Amino acid sequence: MNHKNLEWSDKFSTDILSIDRQHQELIYLSQNLLEVLSNNDTHIAEKQTAFKDLVDHALAHFEYEERIMRNIGYPGLEQHLREHEDLRNEVANIAEDVMNGNAMEDWKGLVSLMQVWVLRHIVASDTQIREFLQREDDDI
Ligand SMILES: [Fe+2]
Ligand SMILES: [Fe+2]
Predict the structure, then answer these.
(1) CA–CA separation, 37 and 5 (whole Å)
(2) pLDDT at position 1, please?
(3) What is the pLDDT of residue 140?
(4) How far apart are CA 92 and CA 64, in angstroms?
(5) pLDDT < 70 positions in the chain
(6) Given this model, what pLDDT does residue 32 score?
(7) Which of 32, 37, 83, 102 could make an S-S bridge to 97, C-beta 3.0–4.6 Å?
């Protein structure tokens, strides 16, 4: 995956506009963070701020998406909650290093990895919400 050119694609769409917008924001923030991390002139505090921005958005997004799934009676909720929990744990592990200023040379790799996990989750699991809503529509 070429991270420099990572862009929104229709295959990421859940057909829920608010969720799609948040996913777009997450992609934008992760791209921005990779750029900030690539710049040798950027101070470590600035890099940490860009990282925190992404993490805050990701955590708020997971909560929002969970609320939506509950509201629509999404049948895959339990499994989806487990996946979010795994992602939260992975993010928390990385965040510990980043916020302590440890292992700075690894940050870029970790952020790329995080990006891959989140995108994989969006494509594999978040888009299932769209399929559920389409089935519901067909039943009416
Ligand atoms: Fe999501
Ligand atoms: Fe999700």
Answers:
(1) 16
(2) 44
(3) 63
(4) 18
(5) 1-5, 140
(6) 92
(7) 102
Euclidean distance between CA atoms 95 and 114, whole angstroms: 11
Letter string b/e over residues 123-133, b meaning 16 or more CB atoms within 10 A of that residue's CB = eebbbbbeebe
One-letter amino acid for residue 49 of the chain: T
Query: Distance from the CA of 41 to the center of ligand 2, in angstroms?
Result: 35
CA distance 136 to 17: 18
Ligand 2 center to 86 CA (angstroms): 11
**Structural domains of the chain sorted by starting position, each given as residue range(s) with its CATH number in brackets:** 18-34+43-139 (1.20.120.50)
Distance from the alpha carbon of residue 139 to the mean position of ligand 1, in angstroms = 25
Please tell me the pTM assigned to this model.
0.89
Ligand nearest to the CA of 88: 2
Q: What is the pLDDT of residue 14?
A: 92
Neighbour count for residue 22 (Cβ, 10 Å): 19
CA dist 50 and 28 (Å) reads: 11
